Structures are given as structure tokens and as C-alpha cells.
Amino acid sequence: MEVLDAMCGLGCEPTIRTYNSLVGGLCYVGRLEEALELLKKLKDSPLTLDIYIFTIVLDGFCKVGRTEATTIFHDAIGMGLSPTTFTYNALLNGHCKEGNLLKAFALLMEMCGNNDGAVEGRTATRR
């Protein structure tokens, strides 16, 4: 976070990719609450958010079995963002880790029904 403050202090405006890296680092070291707070702040910023920042936070929450991942997923969709294969895979893994196979199956069926290219051959046969 200090680097971000220093960048801003020098007049170097961070991009969404800068924030993707920062949020990824926060999730990697287990600082999920900070990552989520930063994501919430970014929603109110002039930056155009991408699906990747949501996927990064969602994946971090899924890896530790936190149920907020589903809310993050729906927030991204509510903003008009299209989930990628990685987005779906992170949420599927989260549901499976929780032993919530019905939710995982329902999500897989949703993926198949969307016809948006998120289900590829390797996705459908990998599980």
C-alpha cells in the first residue's frame, strides 16, 4: 500500500492493472478484508473495473472457504461483466471445497446455459 501512496504522491496514476496486482498480493498473503475493501472503493472510482479484479478477490475468498465469494461473483455480473473460465473455475472449486456439490452443479449448468464461451472442452471434461 505504501508503494501505491508513493506512486500517487509522484503524480503517477495507478491503472486497473496496478490494482489487480495489488489486490492479488493482498489475497496471496491472506489480507482478504483489505482486498475486499479496496475493491469496494474502486467501484466508486472513475476507473473501469474488469472481471479480473473480481476473479482475484473471489478466488482468494474461495481458497479459504469464505462464502462472500458468491456475493463478489454476483456483484461482477451486476456490473455487466462477463465471467471467464477462471472466474467460474474459482467459484466451482470454492463450492466443492465447502462440500456444496449442489451449488457447484447448478453453477456448472448456468455456465453451460450461458453460451458465452466460458465452457471450453477442457473445462467440461476436466472435472
Automatic annotation (TrEMBL):
Protein name: Pentatricopeptide repeat-containing protein
Family: Belongs to the PPR family. P subfamily.
UniProt-listed Gene3D superfamilies: Tetratricopeptide repeat domain
Keywords, sorted A to Z: Repeat, Transit peptide
Matches recorded under InterPro entries: PPR_P_subfamily, PPR_rpt, TPR-like_helical_dom_sf
Gene name per UniProt: At2g16880_0
Entry-linked NCBIfam families: PPR
The PPR repeat ranges on this chain: 15-49, 84-118
Organism: Zea mays
PROSITE patterns the UniProt entry points to: PPR
Domain of life: Eukaryota
Keyword Transit peptide recorded: yes
